[in-house]
Amino acid sequence: GSPPITQRSLPRRRARRMAPLQFKTQEFPMLFTPRAVMLAAALMVSSPLFAAGLQNPTLEEQQVLAKAQENAAQASPQKRAFIDQQLRLSPEQATQFWPVYEEHQVRLGELNRRRIENILIYARALNAGSVDDKTANALAREAIAIEEDEVSLLKRSYQHASRALSPAQAALYVQIEGKGRDMLRAQEAMRVPLVK
Question: What is the distance of C-alpha 162 from the center of its chain?
Answer without folding.
Answer: 24
